[in-house]
């Protein structure tokens, strides 16, 4: 499915996804990225495929991105995953991400009951067949306890 020329490409086949919400993550006046949530049906649910497409405005090292993701997964999970699981997830994320520069796009496609497929600048980069990881990863943005509450609200269709 084509998500738009400016937003990268997530090719995952049917069902087609439609834009659900969009927003930016800005911290202390610096915008890090623009994000769009694409859903397969009206409303958001972890029961249906969706895609989170992020276009970076700033350079972010891959290692920092992964460390931040794992820190947030630890914070949001109750109980936190064991360290051996987090290290396995770290290794799985390494090929999924890059050291970003402004304009780079990373898209994650949530596959219910299966896991997540990642795309970098329109090319498949990794698939992680672990539904627990997939849910924990997307909760970074979509959990009610996310640190990015205003971005979550916009992604889920709020203003």
Structure overview:
This protein is α+β, with helices and mostly antiparallel strands and 159 residues long. It has a single domain (5-155), classed as Chalcone isomerase (3-Layer(bba) Sandwich), CATH 3.50.70. The chain has helices at 62-76, 83-93, 131-142, 149-155; strands spanning 18-27, 30-39, 50-56, 105-111, 115-120, 123-128. The protein has a 6-stranded antiparallel sheet. It is globular. 33% of the residues are buried.
Multimeric status of the protein: single chain
Largest sheet: 6 strands, antiparallel
User: Helical amount among residues, as a percent range?
Assistant: 25-40%
Could you tell me the mean pLDDT?
A: 91
What is the second-level CATH architecture? Answer: 3-Layer(bba) Sandwich
Output the number of helix runs: 4
- Overall tally of domains: 1
Domain Chalcone isomerase: 51-157
Pfam families: Chalcone_3
InterPro entries: Chalcone_isomerase (IPR016087)
Organism: Cupriavidus malaysiensis
Keywords:
single chain; Chalcone isomerase; 6-stranded antiparallel β-sheet; globular
Concise overview:
Residues 51-157 form the Chalcone isomerase domain. Helix content is 28%, strand content 29%.
Question: How is the topology of this model organized?
Answer:
Blueprint: E1 18-27, E2 30-39, E3 50-56, H1 62-76, H2 83-93, E4 105-111, E5 115-120, E6 123-128, H3 131-142, H4 149-155
Antiparallel strand pairs: 1-2, 2-3, 3-4, 4-5, 5-6
Helix pairs in contact: 1-3
Domain Chalcone isomerase: 51-157
Protein name: Chalcone isomerase domain-containing protein
Pfam family, one: Chalcone_3
């Amino acid at each position: 499915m084509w998500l738009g020329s400016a937003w990268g490409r997530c090719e995952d086949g049917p069902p087609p996804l439609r834009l659900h919400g969009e927003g930016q993550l800005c911290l202390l006046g610096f915008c890090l990225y623009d994000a769009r949530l694409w859903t397969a049906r009206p409303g958001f649910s972890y029961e249906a495929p969706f895609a989170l497409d992020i276009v970076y405005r700033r350079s972010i090292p891959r290692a920092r991105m992964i460390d931040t993701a794992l820190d947030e997964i630890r914070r949001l999970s109750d109980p936190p995953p064991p360290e051996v699981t987090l290290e396995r997830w770290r290794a799985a994320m390494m090929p999924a991400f890059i050291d970003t520069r402004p304009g780079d796009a990373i898209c994650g496609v949530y596959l219910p009951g299966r896991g997540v497929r990642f795309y970098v600048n329109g090319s498949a980069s990794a698939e992680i067949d672990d539904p627990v990881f997939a849910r924990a990863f997307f909760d970074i943005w979509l959990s009610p306890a996310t640190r990015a509450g205003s971005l979550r609200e916009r992604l889920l269709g709020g203003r």
